[in-house]
Write a structure and sequence with these properties.
Elements lengths: L4 H15 L6 H8 L3 H13 L3 E4 L3 E4 L1 H23 L8 H8 L5 H10 L25 E2 L9 E6 L4 H10 L6 E7 L6 E5 L2 E5 L1 H4 L2 E5 L4
Antiparallel strand pairs: 1-2, 3-8, 4-5, 4-8, 5-6, 6-7
Length: 221
């Protein structure tokens, strides 16, 4: 089945919304893709006819097996490209998202395989997002936000949201990047700032930033 870039973008957006627990409502999809609600409604009808989603009015969209397979393939292209751009071509991690968006629909399966081989078949992209395998298996994704972490427990930063270049530049400057050790030592009430211990150094970040950084438990060696 030959699909347009727009169709692939919608399937990818629906998958991401589903996995992040926000639900793929018309409004959420419209916000994710910066399009009107009317455009989303029209596209969801098309995707439903193609049997790529199940859609009921006022209940949002859910990918079918066929729709999920396509979404995972596009996401694999995107995240492999992000890592390739950073590790091989020297892009900074705040630049790779937009470049990968432009390229993800246009690479061949052979090119995808070559990138994966060159990068030694990676499991996660520069921001910690899991890279689906060719068979559609998705590695574990960090989902515990800093704001939900237990106090004084050891964690590793597993993933950060990658859409906002300004946020990524701030996080890198602060040292908040995947693989770094972190403890939450204080949470101010009423969505106030969060005090963290970052590789042994104390710092404070805003609640909005803390919600976009996800942790995994540190496994003692």
């Amino acid at each position: 089945m030959s699909l347009s870039q727009s169709v692939e973008d919608y399937l990818k957006a629906i998958y991401v919304l589903q996995t992040e627990g926000n639900g793929a409502s018309t409004n959420n999809i419209a916000e994710a893709l910066s399009v009107s609600s009317a455009s989303v409604t029209n596209m969801l009808k098309k995707l439903s006819k193609l049997k790529l989603i199940n859609h009921k009015s006022y209940r949002g969209a859910e990918l079918t097996k066929a729709g999920e397979k396509i979404a995972l393939e596009v996401i694999r292209h995107h995240r492999l490209l992000e890592l390739y751009l950073k590790e091989v071509m020297g892009y900074s991690w705040d630049e790779v998202h937009d470049e990968a968006e432009n390229l993800e629909h246009h690479i061949s399966e052979q090119f995808e395989d070559k990138i994966a081989e060159l990068l030694n078949h990676p499991t996660h992209d520069p921001h910690g997002d899991p890279i689906p395998t060719k068979d559609g298996v998705v590695p574990e994704m960090a989902s515990l936000a800093i704001t939900d972490a237990e106090l004084n427990e050891p964690y590793l930063i597993g993933r950060v949201k990658d859409q906002d270049p300004e946020l990524l530049r701030y996080l890198e400057k602060t040292g908040i990047i995947p693989g770094v050790k972190l403890k939450v030592i204080e949470k101010a009430p009423f969505n106030g700032p969060v005090k963290i211990l970052l590789e042994g150094k104390e710092t404070t970040i805003g609640n909005g930033v803390a919600k976009d950084v996800y942790l995994v438990e540190e496994v003692e060696s």
